[in-house]
Inverse folding.
């Protein structure tokens, strides 16, 4: 009993962009399924601009992963899917975490041996090795992870400023040891990594993708006074204080 997959990783139009543990990021060099001249023209320029379809492939070997609801495209092998929710208490907790962090209440768990292919995306897939650490993730980036990681939420230090700054009051966290997959608007190569040691970072905008939970995160006025903030033209800024790491994507486009 077993399976073999042909014309996937052995396809000349497919490259393995990254691999970490049982997680593999596949990228398609060209979109070969164009059916019109307009489609072909658009796909050509998209490919030249690094806008290529990507897929996350997850291999299970008597192991378990968790993923974003609705992300699965197909599975091969013997595995079972559960909701990851235990009873009414788990459902209530899941509803709070989903409302707080902007993610779905139910995150399917897949356990067993086989392969899972997620839906293709033009966004960029990051694979992160969380090594006995705890990181905070910007809203909506979660894609999948090993269930050895504990997924939770963390609150802003000052709720009123967070609301005024256009940020959510809570963020998702990943704690422990395992692989975390994120779906981000920019490639990891464009990420600026800032390591703080008892210092502070001020960011005008929500382009911090991820940061250490050891940092104190607040939203504050850019100046000491209202007049100073108005004069600087910045208004409110996101502030990260303490010792830890912040991953910035300053070239990301936000509406």
């Amino acid at each position: 009993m077993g399976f073999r997959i042909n014309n996937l990783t052995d396809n000349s139009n497919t490259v393995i962009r990254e691999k970490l543990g049982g997680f593999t990021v596949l990228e398609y060099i060209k979109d070969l399924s164009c059916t019109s001249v307009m489609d072909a023209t658009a796909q050509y320029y998209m490919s030249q601009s690094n806008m290529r379809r990507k897929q996350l492939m997850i291999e299970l070997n008597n192991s378990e992963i968790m993923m974003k609801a609705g992300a699965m495209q197909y599975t091969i092998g013997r595995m079972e899917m559960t909701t990851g929710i235990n009873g009414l208490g788990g459902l209530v907790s899941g509803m709070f975490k989903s409302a707080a962090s902007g993610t779905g209440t139910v995150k399917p768990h897949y356990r067993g041996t086989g392969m899972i292919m997620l839906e293709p995306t033009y966004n960029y897939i990051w694979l992160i090795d969380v090594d006995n650490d705890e990181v905070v993730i910007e809203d909506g980036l979660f894609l999948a992870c090993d269930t050895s990681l504990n997924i939770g939420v963390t609150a802003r230090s000052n709720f009123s400023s967070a609301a005024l700054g256009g940020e959510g009051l809570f963020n998702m966290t990943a704690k422990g040891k395992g692989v975390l997959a994120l779906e981000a608007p920019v490639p990891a190569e464009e990420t600026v990594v800032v390591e703080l040691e008892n210092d502070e970072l001020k960011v005008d905008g929500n382009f911090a993708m991820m940061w250490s939970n050891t940092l104190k995160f607040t939203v504050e006025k850019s100046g000491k006074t209202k007049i100073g903030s108005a004069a600087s033209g910045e208004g409110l800024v996101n502030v990260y204080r303490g010792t830890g790491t912040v991953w910035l994507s300053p070239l990301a486009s936000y509406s």
